[in-house]
Design goal:
21 helices; Thrombin, subunit H; 593 residues; alpha+beta
């Protein structure tokens, strides 16, 4: 009986041993681990970390690398070294999350280099390929991704990269596995080990269930991992162009798969990043993926033109005309690019890229698609060429359509003024430009309102100018305006004989710059004209303290004293004004005799 029991126990123990061996991940799983070295644009090393390969979720048959995010901040290049010492470059970032400290990216296997050899970044100019040796390519088999999460108490395995192609499989037990917002946060009752950061957490089948996280400094008695399901949330979408986590990495990002989203992403990218090399690489990706969409060619041409690489810009524009159906839009883009160049004083003309060429291109665009949008560009070209009468006619045509706007009315008014048109019509157009805005006025109406007031002032429509300045002040706020504005406004109000308003505004100017002599004299002048002689004497005396040798203060004091019947004092001040060079003071002296 004892022998039978012994054999039964022996069989059970053997079975448990076999099960335990079978539960270990395949040793080949270690081939999926990589070492990653990140560097800045100036080749300064940022750090080293561990990563591992998984099947690409969007590109069947391809692989992507999962790694900690932190070493990628400010990185312009990341070199991936496989278990055999072969190297490849990080090609495109496909997702990143600084909160979970994970990043995912593709590698450029065609750009692999032998270990120890210098890693050369691919040319930013799309279409130019660096020669590569096939024997240098990194080969990294992917780890399968688990479809099920592990529960507390389950056995799991941490795959540690020891370097030089060696790995270590560490068996652990899942202590806790809470879920939050669809993500699993694994707690492993094992002391933290910084060298494990970025290592994959595997189940018994060798499938990835999580990634080991970097511990907080105060938490060293446990090891933490984030569930691999975060992988589904790591994507590059249109709004990723404004994602700080992604924009802190200077390695090009993967374009969204949908054409409209990709073009929107590129547009937003120009507004949210200074990483021009990544932007240029993404433009190359867009052209390669959507060769019949003119957007990629014209955007890259715009970049090349702005950086004085005119031959490249010209090549892209010609290619767009060859490949794309939207000829009118391409001619319009050519016109915009050339027009923009000619607005810069630093521009040295390239071939026939002058304003006449810009006008010719937009006329071609309009002949193919007669939209008022193209007429707006034509008007700009005509104005820049000083063909003002033609510009007036062009803007008048635009303003007879649904594209009538404050901007186009303003442009028509400006062109009419430059063409020597009637001032009444010029101001009427400006008034229409302001009227186009809904009441109450929004801040974007402010420039039009100020220009309207300035123009009215210039043509002698002082009451209209004063009203315009007052409305402008109400719109932008008194506290935002300078003493010069209030002085100019006061001058217009004086001409319009709006003395109370003028006095109020010159006092505002004085409050902002009390030591300005001119402002004090202006106030005294208004007070004299309005019969406030005591106030005028006081104000002119204050001005006198600022400049005792200017005759205006003495003259105004003299006039005010005379009006108050204090003739002797008045004559003394007027005599002093005359001695300081004011001839008009003599007339006042004679009148008092």
């Amino acid at each position: 009986m004892r022998k039978v029991l012994f054999f039964i126990l022996l069989i059970i123990n053997c079975q448990l041993s076999i099960d335990n061996v079978c539960a270990q991940p395949d040793k080949k799983a270690g081939l999926s681990l990589v070492k990653i070295v990140t560097t800045k644009a100036d080749a300064t090393q940022i750090g080293e970390t561990t990563g591992f390969a998984i099947p690409s979720p969007t590109n069947e048959g391809a692989i992507e690398i999962v790694s900690p995010y932190t070493p990628f901040k400010q990185a312009a290049k990341a070199t991936v070294i496989d278990s055999k010492g072969k190297a490849a470059l990080a090609h495109r970032i496909t997702g990143a999350n600084d909160l979970y400290d994970v990043v995912r990216f593709t590698i450029d296997n065609a750009a692999g280099v032998a270990s120890g050899s210098p890693v050369v970044a691919p040319s930013a100019r799309a279409g130019i390929k660096e020669p590569r040796e096939r024997s240098d390519r990194a080969t990294i088999p992917p780890l399968p991704v688990a479809s099920q999460k592990l529960a507390a108490g389950s056995k799991a395995y941490i795959l540690k990269n020891l370097g030089k192609g060696k790995t270590q499989t560490i068996e652990v037990t899942i202590g806790e596995a809470p879920e939050l917002s669809g993500l699993t946060y694994y707690t492993i009752f094992r002391p933290a080990d910084e060298t494990l950061t970025g290592s994959p957490l595997l189940n018994a089948k060798g499938e990835v269930v999580g990634v080991i996280q970097r511990n907080a400094a105060s938490q060293t008695d446990k090891t933490y991992a984030i569930g691999i399901e975060f992988n589904e949330a790591l994507t590059v979408s249109t709004m990723s162009a404004a994602d700080p986590a992604l924009q802190s990495i200077f390695i090009p990002k993967q374009l969204p798969a949908v054409q409209e989203q990709a073009s929107s992403y590129l547009y937003l990218l120009t507004k949210n990043t200074e990483d021009t090399l990544s932007y240029l690489a993404n433009l190359g990706d867009f052209i390669e993926k959507f060769p019949e969409d003119f957007f990629g060619y014209t955007e890259r041409a715009q970049y090349y033109a702005a950086t004085q690489q005119y031959a490249y810009a010209e090549a892209d524009l010609n290619k767009a005309l060859e490949m794309c159906a939207e000829k009118a839009d391409i001619h319009s883009s050519i016109s915009n690019i050339i027009y923009g160049l000619n607005q810069s004083k630093a521009y040295k003309q390239y071939k026939d890229w002058d304003l006449n060429r810009a006008l010719s291109e937009i006329e071609q665009a309009y002949s193919l698609n007669p939209t008022p949008l193209f007429l707006m560009q034509k008007g700009k070209c005509l104005y820049a060429l000083k063909r003002y009468s033609e510009a007036v006619d062009t803007y008048a045509e635009i303003n007879s359509t649904r594209f009538r706007s404050s901007e186009n009315l303003f442009c028509q008014s400006r062109a009419l003024e430059m063409a020597g048109g009637d001032s009444t019509e010029v101001i009427a157009l400006l008034d229409s430009a302001v009227t186009r805005f809904m009441r109450p006025l929004r801040p974007d109406a402010a420039p039009y309102l100020l220009y309207y007031a300035n123009t009215c002032n210039r043509y002698g429509y002082y009451k209209e100018a004063a009203l315009g300045y007052q409305e402008y002040e109400s719109l932008v706020g008194t506290k935002t305006l300078s003493d010069v504005f209030f002085y100019n406004k006061e001058q217009v109000e004086l001409k319009a004989r709006l003395y109370p308003q003028a006095l109020n505004d010159i006092e505002k100017a004085i409050s902002l710059k009390p030591q300005e002599y001119v402002y004090q004299i202006e106030k005294a002048l208004i007070e004299t004209r309005t019969g406030h002689f005591e106030e005028a004497i006081y104000t002119a005396t204050q001005a006198q303290k600022l400049d005792p040798y200017d005759p205006d203060s003495y003259k105004l004091i003299g006039i005010s004293l005379g009006e108050l019947g204090r003739k002797a004092e008045a004559r003394q001040n007027l005599q002093r004004a005359y001695e300081l060079g004011d001839e008009q003071a003599l007339e006042w002296l004679n009148s008092m005799k």
